[in-house]
Amino acid sequence: MKKIIGVALVLVLVATSVFAQVSTGAQFRQRVDIANFSLQNGNATYSFFDQDHKDDTKVAVSASTDNAGVVLEVAVDLDTPSWTINNVKGGWFRIGDVYGWFRVGGFKMTAGKFASRFTNRLVQDRSRALGLSYLFSTYGVKTSVIKVAGTKDGDNMTNDSELATIADYTFDLDVAKLLVQGALFDPAFNNIMRSGFGFEAAFQMDMFTIDLVAKFPEPYHHSFGVYFQMYPVDLLQFAVGATLGIDSTDADVKPFVYGIDGRVRLTPLDALAITVHANFSGGVTSFSLAGINSKKTEYCFGAVANVTYDINDKFAIFGEAGYSDLDVAKTTVTFGGNTTTTVDKNESGAVRAQIGTLIRPVENVKLAASVRADIPTGGGATTTIGIPLVFDISF
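RESULT FIELD:
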């Protein structure tokens, strides 16, 4: 009997190795700031050849069949060790995406450490620039003073947590598809509900998608989002999103935040792409007590345009210009007819521009370099001019 079981186990292992698609990948990325010039209040500083090893250097292994799979990714950051003992540094390794999934018909379950977003973020040219691009990454709220959990990465159903579980079902409606899903994610919601949770419904047709998201990452913190994408013709894609967060911890205050995203990508030629990202975010919190009325407001804004042109399959040029990092927060208190205003944060924003090149000198190797300038619009801030170079080796 034991021999039969042993033979059966060997057959299972052999079948798994034969039918599972196993793939491995490795990536190394490093940035060198060839030159940096900074100017603040008339004081100039210079630096040359500042190295920065990127933590998206990684090794990944995946194994999958048509109905199940596992992914393991380990990242390395040589700049930032996670521990130091007796002046000895270590812990350069980070856990990247680690998850498993299986599918039965239209049902799918995924668990582990991963991101889950439905709406296309139109970040193709951001990825090509190897981290040099000013284009935004996530949809959501950009406020830094008034904050509600779950809104920074509004449509990410794992809430950027270390452990999440998502169960979803896709209904095939012939001319359209409907996805419904529920998610659990760290940290614990309370002593009874040991995970935060969320729900999503997404409807997709050939020309557009619409995505509805509700997340409850902490007690009294609620995040809601509506994200719409449309591609009316092959050369045009655009997306808009609205994210709302409400904190009902204190019934007398109830701060809320919001973020409005708009993105467009136009490809009038096969070799030419024009991408524009914009975000406006804000927040309000107020309360009244014994004749004292207090109101805190915050607003943020950023917009950037990217133009990328492929000269051939090995060489491309890109340019970007935009205005970002505007972040202003104020508190106004009224008592007895007198009003006082306190500035909590006053980031005036900066005009940013760069022109650069993307090169593929040999297979599996990519280079990106640019000349860039960040010019703040407010007094006292730092103006910077830099020449960064990034190289990426991927297999």
